[in-house]
Amino acid sequence: MIRKDNTKANRRRIFFLFFLFITVFGLIVYRLVNIQYVFADKYKVEADYQHTGDYIIKSKRGKILDRSGIELASSLVEKTITANPKLIKDEDYIVEVMAELLRIDEAIIKEKLSDKERGFVYIARKVDTYIADIINSYAFEGINIEDECKRFYPQNELASPLIGFTGIDNIGLSGMELGYEELLRGIDGKYSAEKDVFGKIIEANEESYTAPISGSDIVLTIDSGLQYFTEKKLMEAAEQFQASKAICIVMNPQTGEVYSMAQYPTFDLNNYSDYSQEIFNNLAISFTYEPGSTFKIVNISSAIDGGFVGPEQLFHLAPTIKVGDRIIKETHRTYGIDYTVGDIIKYSSNIGAVTVALAMGNENYYNNIIKYGFGNTTGINIPGEEKGIVSDYKTWPASTIGALAIGQSISVTPIQLLRAASVIANGGYLINPFVVKEIHQNNGNIEKIIPDEGIKIISSMAADSVKDMMLQVVEDGTGKRAGVDGVLVCGKTGTAQKANKNGIGYSEGRVITSFLGFAPYDNPKVACVVIIDEPQGNEEEIWGGTVAAPIFSEIVEFALKKVN
Predict the structure, then answer these.
(1) Which of 532, 508, 536 is nearest to 242 (CA)?
(2) Is the pTM of this model over 0.85?
(3) pLDDT surpasses 50 at 396
(4) Was domain 224-441+449-563 assigned CATH 3.30.428.70?
């Protein structure tokens, strides 16, 4: 009986082991089928990831240069520290060493290495080569060091709103860096390589390597010397008059080539993150304001061109005039006087400007404002350009034409206003301002930017007539302080009250002073606008002719020496 029972037990064990073997074998076969056939593609991808890798080789960003080849933006090769948390050993020691060398809190590095499912994390970017070499000498498993370009601005604050800056990934975020991103960026390369069991790259053949293509260099029309001088003068003026901001553009009125585009306050491009975002705006193209009396050149030139008034026509002007429900006054005159059209510009007569505008009528005046390019961008190709505001004449209340005649109820940018002055300087052509002189492509080709011829918008007679009037403004009118020794200068003053912050009426204590003009008279080579926002001081002394005109004089004198 005992032997019989043992035999049955042994049989049961054999059958159990047999079925267990069959089950395990079946599971193995099932697993192999899944790996080899059902999920083959998935596991192949994972295997390729573990044993091979495609590494992006960043292209070198193109330079930004001034018109003489002085570097305004360039790229430095620095190092980036990355890690594969899956391969990290002796984590505490690595964290301690890296934290000390990189001056990063240990907790931050530890958190990056904590997720062992991740195969890649950034530890630090744009690291000095010396520090990276020290880290490399430790030969930590799972820690990699790669080359990466860092944007560098050799001139620091010079032309910073115009040039703009890049982010941590070397992608343009503002200014020319953003506007010409595609050209400056270049094309990244690629390196396909195998990795060993520790994740280290095994050297591959040349066929697996695609070289990066560097970005094109951009040569600006800006002159660094003039730009520096202009920024210095704006800073001095803003500090002297405790102004909130100051703006200046210097341009060739014949071609639209911008020599200087400056503002105050400004910022250091190499440390842009230390500044408020508001300061990044390029005020030359984005600051919108009511231009005041500088806008009278648009009014008068349009009226002469349309035959509504003659250059020598005489008007008897009262000290006040009513337009719609608004009474407009002269600034300094309380008596009637006889003025020619030239005198209206020379002495900046409000009543005279309104009288001329009324002679044109709403529709004609509006069409001429649009013809001068107001209410639209100039096409200067810098990100952030504003159009300004010009309301349709069909919606104007009766008083609007009077307000427009003296540079109110309209919003313009400095670049729009300077382009309008250039129409007078060049004989009647509306030109397109530009800031890029050449593009040096990575294949060695140089693309030179050819200025547009411009569009003839007023007659040469009308332009020359107003040019003569603007000469008298500086020779014997409101802009005497804009004069330059030995040079005939044409200009127009502007002192505009700022609208109240609630949008109703104008403030007595807040003004924008400006001066707009060009030189020399017989062959204008330089056009310039200077704007000082909210200068402080005695109200009897804060005018365009006293605040902005002297700065205009110094800048134009310097500019004529630079561009001749």
Answers:
(1) 536
(2) no
(3) yes
(4) no
